[in-house]
Amino acid sequence: MLTYTHHNNEITLNHLNQTVHLKGWAAKVRNLGGLIFIDLRDRFGITQLVIKPENPLYEQALKIKNEYVLDIKGVVIERESKNPNLFTGDVEVDVTELSILNTAETPPIIVANDTDALEETRLKYRYLDLRRPLMQNFLMKRHQITQAIREVLVGEGFYEMETPILGKSTPEGARDYLVPSRLYPGTFYALPQSPQIYKQLFMVAGMEKYFQVARCFRDEDLRADRQPEFTQIDIEQSFVDMEDIQGLIERIMKHTFKKVLNVDVATPFIRMSYQEAMERFGSDKPDLRYGLEIFDAKPLLNGVDIPFFQGKEHIRGLILEQGSTITRKRIDQYTDVVKKNHGEALAYLRLQDGQYSGSIVKFFNEPDLKQLPLKEGNIMFLVPGLFDHVSSALGALRIELGNEFKMIPENTYKFLWVVDWPLLEYSEEEQRFYAKHHPFTAPVDPEVLRNDPKNAMAKAYDIVLNGYEIGGGSIRIHRQEVQRLMFDTLGLSKEDINHRFGFFVDALKYGTPPHGGLALGLDRVVMLMTNTTNIKDVVAFPKTQSAKDVMMQAPSDVDAIQLDELNIKVGEVK
User: In the chain, what percentage of residues exceed pLDDT 90?
Assistant: First the structure.
């Protein structure tokens, strides 16, 4: 039996002259003037081993290379050259017994916090990448965060329950991942985009308080904070209103940040309407750690004839104080950011050394320029167009400037509830309404939904942290006639409703209680709490930006026999 007395981040001067039994990987092997030093690594940290030339194990030790797996015994001695950066840096272990449990080829990536490997290479050899202490810390923090969230929910009487992975395709939102059925040829299961309907059925079943660490799947384009499969802390509760759910989530966040990071989170969180968030920050997930707010610039331009501003519904802007160093080339790059985010154009004015300059300065006379809220060194950016387009463009520019000019303080956490959401959004292209969140979100007033759907408001709420949406939820529709009204407004026929949601509509007939909930994006929460900007860092085995698993080589072809069993014929790939 392999037994050990200590882990590799435990031994100090208090253990001098003790015999210890350690295990781990050879993180670094150095031969210095005949002395062999080995940094022995396990998931806790590093202990330095020393093998002297007179040691009978010396010849065996000469064979050891990086990433060999070792089992050693030895005596703790004081180091002559101490390392203040290591917890074990005052001591080393003089090896008396040595067993090489396994050898290792030279790894294709450096197994250390500082690695020069490309991301694709790291993902291909993810099992080696995860040996790096930095990566192990991400996963250990993920464990701690998950357990802290569980503690609050279990302590408040929630039951942890599971829902199926193989379910029915109910396409509303992102594309489903489909799984063909062998037993029922030509039919498909769908992997869950979320357990939404199932958790509501738990409320119909009278369970009252449910949660789940749920795996979810969405076939959508990827980005730095999104993966095709992800994890939600899924929560649902009966007989609640919005304030009840928000209070629960605030208690979860307060406990989790204190326990894992020893950070005190102030509650209650700020509440801000969707409309205010868009007006002030150009985003429904604003980062409140810095200012740089958007404002209505139209009143500043009264009497100023700027041709490409004429007839525009909105002209909005923001003012950057540190405008003196911005080059014309950089402004062209800002223009690209604006246009990629639905903005028509980017205009600017600058005050530097008492002189006004900029792309639209020629349209102003001196008195009009002096009425502008510009101080020495300031630059004002302006975008014309429709409200949503202007907001999106300036919101993206705000983020670009905030990062570039280092406006965002480190180790600061700003929570926000975005509330007062529109229930629906209208597609001019398809001439129909879509649910802003999902079709089971309760309207504030069903009569407004019936008579004026464009202005119907939702009992919905998103929780935002440092510019990221980390969760979203709502009070659900629990009355059958309101759910039917919602489906009708979305343009679903009776046949569509029965085919997609018939079982759920039936369930609403049998005494469904008022209920609501929220899903926290665990991956994003961990990403923010570990101060990384790449969600792949906190997912053990992630996909690339092109949705590939380069380690497993998935997706991949399958045998013709498997396709025949599923009655599937693969056509020519276009």
Answer: 88
